[in-house]
Amino acid sequence: MLKEIESQLNSFKKINKNRGRLLISCLDQPGIISKISKFLFSHGANIIESNQYSINPHGGDFFIRIDFEAPDLIDKKETLMEDFQPIAETFSMTWELHLVSELKRMAIFASKDLNCLRELLWQWQNGDLMAEIPLVVSNHETARPLVEQLGIPFYYLPASKENRTEVEKKQLQLMSEYDIDVIVLARYMQILTPHFVASHPMKIINIHHSFLPAFVGARPYERAYQRGVKLIGATSHYVTNDLDEGPIIEQDTVRVDHRFDVDELKKMGGNIERNVLARAVKWHLQDRIIVHGNKTIVF
Amino acid sequence: MLKEIESQLNSFKKINKNRGRLLISCLDQPGIISKISKFLFSHGANIIESNQYSINPHGGDFFIRIDFEAPDLIDKKETLMEDFQPIAETFSMTWELHLVSELKRMAIFASKDLNCLRELLWQWQNGDLMAEIPLVVSNHETARPLVEQLGIPFYYLPASKENRTEVEKKQLQLMSEYDIDVIVLARYMQILTPHFVASHPMKIINIHHSFLPAFVGARPYERAYQRGVKLIGATSHYVTNDLDEGPIIEQDTVRVDHRFDVDELKKMGGNIERNVLARAVKWHLQDRIIVHGNKTIVF
Amino acid sequence: MLKEIESQLNSFKKINKNRGRLLISCLDQPGIISKISKFLFSHGANIIESNQYSINPHGGDFFIRIDFEAPDLIDKKETLMEDFQPIAETFSMTWELHLVSELKRMAIFASKDLNCLRELLWQWQNGDLMAEIPLVVSNHETARPLVEQLGIPFYYLPASKENRTEVEKKQLQLMSEYDIDVIVLARYMQILTPHFVASHPMKIINIHHSFLPAFVGARPYERAYQRGVKLIGATSHYVTNDLDEGPIIEQDTVRVDHRFDVDELKKMGGNIERNVLARAVKWHLQDRIIVHGNKTIVF
Amino acid sequence: MLKEIESQLNSFKKINKNRGRLLISCLDQPGIISKISKFLFSHGANIIESNQYSINPHGGDFFIRIDFEAPDLIDKKETLMEDFQPIAETFSMTWELHLVSELKRMAIFASKDLNCLRELLWQWQNGDLMAEIPLVVSNHETARPLVEQLGIPFYYLPASKENRTEVEKKQLQLMSEYDIDVIVLARYMQILTPHFVASHPMKIINIHHSFLPAFVGARPYERAYQRGVKLIGATSHYVTNDLDEGPIIEQDTVRVDHRFDVDELKKMGGNIERNVLARAVKWHLQDRIIVHGNKTIVF
Description:
Chains A, B, C, D: Pathway: Purine metabolism; IMP biosynthesis via de novo pathway; formate from 10-formyl-5,6,7,8-tetrahydrofolate: step 1/1. Chains A, B, C, D: Residues 21-102 form the ACT domain. The structure is a homotetramer of 299-residue chains. By secondary structure, chain A is an alpha/beta fold. Chain A has two domains: 17-99, Alpha-Beta Plaits (2-Layer Sandwich); 105-298, Rossmann fold. In chain A, 37% of the residues lie in helices and 28% in strands. The first copy, chain A, has a seven-stranded mixed beta sheet. The longest helix of chain A is centred in the last third of the chain and has 24 residues, at 262-285. Chains in contact: A-B, A-C, A-D, B-C, B-D, C-D. Chain A binds chain B through residues 53, 211-215, 227-231, 233, 247-253, 257-259, 292, 294-298, and chain B through 53, 211-215, 227-231, 233, 247-253, 257-259, 292, 294-298.
């Protein structure tokens, strides 16, 4: 990694050494917030921002994200988690505690179209995406100079339908070796097997180049052109085993008109794709997303 | 019709008595624009705004819309059309000449949800949609007071799958009796038969409550909710025999989030629906739309 | 009021009879949320949605909005308020408790341009704005039929620079007589005196027909046309004694181009105005807004 | 310049060797379009896209942009210009003929904030901005690696209020030496003297980091934060001697809320800035813009 990026990340970790985030979902019951906030208070934590939402207050689903500060958080983390366990059990919570200073380790998978990869690397370099990027994997050599000039290891693993299993094995080894938390498919264009998906559930973020569920599958711009739509869009979602059917994180659209041919739709769409993907990744890195069934709550 | 609306329309017709619009499509060939503009000049017409577009200049499709003024246009119309005929034949043109002062006669078909009907009537009353509205047809009584207070005849024709043929017969009689140019389905919620559609080709404008081609067919908001989309939309299109597959005129989307239930999606979407439909109707009334295959050119 | 609207409001009040909202702002200190949530829990309240935000966790400002349900809330209100008082004092809170079933009483001030008034009345009729509307005041007769057909008393009070004091006296009498909670200036076009403004601090909502702070003051569309802007906008804000300088609640813009003359800018802008104002009013009615200095927090 | 970019530009020039654009403005008079189209036809030109607009058809201003193809255009250019001269004189036209294959020579002026510069270089590399970029000038060394890795000469000319005249002299020398057609100020942050501006009238494109005319001048984000706006924007305009008052080419806005501090407004705004500037530059390079008084017509 380039020195200047490294020092930027280090300074971010230092500033945020006492900052944590608690993400909880469970069935709604009286007294949950009271219990959580008492717990945080008793451990010296001060809540900075909290957002809570219940689908149905009478026994429906309850979701909360709490952004807090607590002195000596890094040392205290284990204690906090142990002490919270009984509360979590009482309410049968699904929960996560994240320290902002423990940057997520993000792998990016790319292909020949560098549009999305470039945006991610740029925003990262610019201090907008706070993560470690230990490696970029691609089935083409195209991205190598862009990646290596930032000091990021680049792995060229030519992938196709034929060698999928073998390639995925190597990829999973790399993910494990580099201790990866989140995988971003920046127009990777290869379908992942259920085995790969199962290894990182709700940790693989994809960008699809259409406003889903319109134009699921291949060649969405060509089909958008044929249909004569007046807006084109992009959708970022977590990858599941159903193609383009995973929980949607973010979407956006942009106006086009009859003068746009397929190539111009692609150029226009590329701009939406990179922005939508970057927002989705940012929200994931900031622990803003709770997956609920096949939907996301983005706080 | 209310006196104040009538006098508003009359004043518009007077102001625009010399204003016309020429819409042409044909195969592209050298010299078309030269011929057309020479023709207009020789008839004393001054071009106010013109927009031309060719899909492929080497023998592809050519489209033009010309907005012009010519003295004594109303008297001259027949001559203009006769004189233009030979040019049209030379280039095998599909063409229309519209006089702005000859207001289109627009029928609105509504049902119980008055959202879109209200917007159209309001914009009409406000001078934003320049048309005659000789009647509103509905399969419910709900809209009667709203319609009749503007002095517009209201026809209650309860329609269902069972009596479709019979009802359409009456509707077509009304369309003919009132000499209707364009039919707007303002959330009419009934499927039209091919017979009805064929009677007004590319003159029936529908609003579909989703961003097509996502959620074709029934209950789009329910399905949008299930899918967890982050934007909802609406699409206005000309009606063809393929449900929700006609040429798209206009679309728009609006941001929603996890807090929206189906009812709130509907309320949010209703706002988009009425604006999208009103824009599509306005463009049709202003002769801005050329249909080309299953697409529209909107100048 | 029309029977159907009345019954719609009554049904809303019934459904929401146990629903309340707590809005709090104070200096940030440890333990606030813990105290509030314990208080609500001990009074049998279940939190449905809560949003909290601190400008600076180290002694900065703290804001929270809690949407909750509690059995027998209407009977319990007084007790709740008394019991909360000591907590409020401990933390020097500014706070409000609202019962959703206690609909706000909203007066609308209009003039000749009915665009915004119509949108408000329509959304109200449609069940999107939950409030009583005991009266509409106008300095022109134009709106009378529109208002009276909904069964709302209409007061024609011709206002001008000359008789401002006298007219405002009558208006204040009406506000007091009808026990008004919030006043919406739906393109009222008259400047209010400091005396009037002081009588309803942060309870008067205005719509300004530009994207503030661009084009403060008179004739914004004319000035937008002169400047050749590519977007026009509208701003809804609370009224203070500084013209167009009060806390902004909501803003939006829409694209225009060189073909728009001043009248068309006005038509285009009118659509933005009414939507921006309706959103601002809705958020106010839903107790989503906390005013902080000259800004708003909109939860 | 990198070989791959060079070959991309060369291939673009080859494909478009017969493509030209005619931009005309004059007082509206009958027969203009007829004359122009006859002229083009008689020189073998086929019109691909044409857009015409008159502010007022009765002697107001007339503007047209014609995109055409003509065989052997490069060889024919001189003849075309000579032959068009008499027509131009008859109607007192201001006019320009551009060959798409004669790429404009664009200089970029940057400073420390590389956001806009990066977007321009990226879109250029990606084939979205068709121009030669013979040099980048900056008053800081920050951009050097980014610029030089694309094979573009980088000139470091530290500029300040004190040495403005001297620095501008060098800059003008460079502009002349490199035969520059258009100068883009990509957050250059230095005020240009009237002498410099006069040397390239309506050929210097600036990006201002606010929605003009809101927040003219310095520190717009700080002032937007103070004012509590709900949208922030950016404006691209031609530079004149009145600071931030030149003809606006493009503007856009994006939604923000109370949680954004000044730094986050800047990050959010940066994304709008770079997109707005890139669109404005693209339209300039495509000869889509006619300046009329202090406004632009963008076809």
